[in-house]
UniProtKB/TrEMBL annotation:
Residues 96-183 form the Methyltransferase small domain. PANTHER family: HEMK METHYLTRANSFERASE, MTRF1L RELEASE FACTOR GLUTAMINE METHYLTRANSFERASE. This is peptide chain release factor N(5)-glutamine methyltransferase. Coiled coil: none annotated. Transmembrane segments: none annotated. Keywords: Methyltransferase, S-adenosyl-L-methionine, Transferase. It comes from Fervidobacterium gondwanense DSM 13020. Pfam families: MTS, PrmC_N. Residues 14-65 form the Release factor glutamine methyltransferase N-terminal domain. GO terms for molecular function: nucleic acid binding; peptide chain release factor N(5)-glutamine methyltransferase activity. Signal peptide: none annotated. One of its GO terms (biological process) is methylation. It catalyses: L-glutaminyl-[peptide chain release factor] + S-adenosyl-L-methionine = N(5)-methyl-L-glutaminyl-[peptide chain release factor] + S-adenosyl-L-homocysteine + H(+).
Amino acid sequence: MKISEVIAVYKRKGLPEREALILIAKYLRKSKEYILAHDDMECPDEVLKLLDKRLSGYPLQYILGEVEFYGRTFYISEGVLIPRWETEGLVELAIKYIKEYNLKNLIDIGLGSGIIAVTLALETGVFIYGTDVSKKALEVARKNADRYGIKCDFRLGAFADPFVEIWDNIEMVVSNPPYVRSDVKLQKELSYEPPEALFAGPEGLDFYKEFFKKYKIDGKIVLMEIGHDQGNALRELTGGKIIKDLAGKDRYLVVNRKE
Ligand SMILES: C[S@@+](CC[C@H](N)C(=O)[O-])C[C@H]1O[C@@H](n2cnc3c(N)ncnc32)[C@H](O)[C@@H]1O
């Protein structure tokens, strides 16, 4: 089949033209513009397999192995959370505090692909400590850190446990932790993402409860992404303030113990 026919057939099956074009261009290692200008070429069978995979609900970013975040391209792979737009708001808040307090370091707990850590290092020059309980996530985060050549120390482990010996010197904690309630049924597309990156007990609060119980945060700023219905519980738990995202929903927790 010609590329133009393939795009039309898959559009009828429900695959947006844009996505078909992105996948064809990726497979043939050409630009989308090139593909559009040469859409009378024969389409290789391998491409049809990719299009079928996408049509079955498998995330586009996992097929491409890349994802956009805060204007940059990052590696991503199955087993590691695909970044969400809300997290750009967490990054913006962090940049504001880093500049206001002239911070020199921070820890990102739950690195995932490392998008928060790498973006903050590039935007502000801050040194990043980072942890994740997932080996796969740590691998991808390190790959992204290498891609952009940032100054960092990423270690496998829970919370800030791998950095206990320097905990007192860490100035800020940034985290987009798991916060989905364990009884929530995910849409098909989310079911490909790692459960340990999403679920956090019956109220989705396990990560926050354990972190604030375990760590003394005197002298530090803690910024965390939260579920839209967790603001009240977290205000009560931490005494911090809640900030809304661009959709007007409670989304970020700020506990400032520098003041
Ligand atoms: C919601 S994902 C966020 C990933 C990435 N920071 C982002 O915003 O796209 C949460 C990440 O935290 C990790 N994680 C879960 N519990 C953790 C813990 N107790 N300590 C460190 N990392 C944890 C998961 O493996 C996952 O990579």
